[in-house]
Amino acid sequence: MIQEEDYVRLTTIRGIIWALIVTCYFTAPVWAQTGQSEAAAAKPSVRISGEVERPITLGAEDLAKLPRRTIRAKDHGGKESEFEGSPLIEVLKLAGVKFGEGLKGKNLTLYLVVEASDGYSVVYALPELDPAYADKVVLIVDQRDGKPLDSKEGPLRLVVPDEKMHARWVRQVTGLVIKRAPYSIFHLNE
Predict the structure, then answer these.
(1) CB under 8 Å to 8, separation ≥6 — which residues?
(2) Three-state SS across 111-161?
(3) Could you tell me the pTM of the whole model?
(4) How far apart are the first and last CA of the chain?
């Protein structure tokens, strides 16, 4: 039989445990996001994986070695800025993704999923990134108006200046995943 003192202690302990659970539930995402943003701002990196020859993670030093390009574009709010970074195609080539003559046949079913630290993701068909197929400019940028991107935007961001909607201007890019769409019946003989 439980004594009244023991019952009071158990009830108090349960209350403390529930208070801790609720506190952790509502504050843990803030701690994780703050830590992740600070870590991301300190060390920009992007993981390239999926159907690639060489899954890799590129850091700031690796990205700095790639060809750089600067463009002027208006952001979602209409503010014109100068963005600097590397063509996305150059980043993908480091993982062995094929473009140009290598992007034909079965490889035309490959697509890119761009992942952000907050869980947001978008899709690009590989031909729309390839200058042999399209004139679309897609940059993975690390600077805006000559300064590193702030933690809200970066450390890495996709910028696509010719798109009317900015839904595929992904902030806080962390991953580039190459996937393959299912083949249609017409591709069975290839």
Answers:
(1) none
(2) EEEEEECCCCEEEEEHHHHCCCCCCCCCEEEEEECCEECCCCCCCCEEECC
(3) 0.74
(4) 77
